Amino acid sequence: MSEISWRIVDRRPLLPVLILSPDVNDLRTVDAVALVDTGATASAVTRDLAERLALPVIGKRLVASAHGDQHVDRYIFRIGIRLPREGEMPAFPFVFEAVEGFRIRSGFAFDALLGMDVLSQCDLTISGGQTGILRFG
C-alpha cells in the first residue's frame, strides 16, 4: 500500500494531484491542487483544467453546493498522486481508475476536488488538523 502525507494549511486539506485524460494511452498530465472533500460524492475539476486536457463535456449534472443547486458540466478523467521518491529512482504516480466528475468554479485556493468516488478507495487520516495522510493502492 502506498502512502502520501502533507501539511494542512488554514484548516483546508489541500493535496497536490495530477489530472489525466481517461485514455490510458494519453500520458499528458496537469498538476493541480485538490481539496480533499469527504462531503462530495464525486470528484471535480475547473473548466481550465478540463480544457487543458481537451476533456469533452459528456452532459450536465445537478450539483448541490453552498451556492445552491445548479446544473454543471460533467467530464470523465483520472486522478493521480505522485509517490515519494526512494533513492535515485524516479517514482511513477499512482493513478486511480477514471471517474465521472463535474466542473467546479475557478477562483478558489484549489482547482480540483477529491471526492468520495476516489477517497472510498483510500484510508484517510487527519492528525490534529495539521497533517493529512492518504493510503491507497
Name a few traits of the molecule.
3-stranded antiparallel sheet, Aspartic_peptidase_AS, 6-stranded mixed β-barrel, mainly beta, hydrolase, single chain, 137 residues, 48% strand
**Largest sheet data:** 6 strands, mixed, barrel
Mean pLDDT: 92
Which radius of gyration do the C-alpha atoms yield?
15 Å
CATH architecture: Beta Barrel
Provide the low-confidence segments as ranges. Answer: none
Please report the number of helical segments. 2
Beta-strand fraction estimate? over 45%
Please tell me the total number of domains: 1
Describe the structure.
The chain is mostly beta strands and 137 residues long. It has helices spanning 47-52, 116-119, and strands at residues 2-7, 14-20, 29-36, 44-46, 60-65, 68-81, 94-95, 99-104, 112-114, 123-127, 131-136. The protein is globular. The model has no long low-confidence stretch (mean pLDDT 92).
Q: How is the topology of this model organized?
A:
Layout: E1 2-7, E2 14-20, E3 29-36, E4 44-46, H1 47-52, E5 60-65, E6 68-81, E7 94-95, E8 99-104, E9 112-114, H2 116-119, E10 123-127, E11 131-136
Parallel strand pairs: 3-9, 4-8
Antiparallel strand pairs: 1-11, 2-3, 2-6, 4-9, 5-6, 6-7, 6-8, 10-11
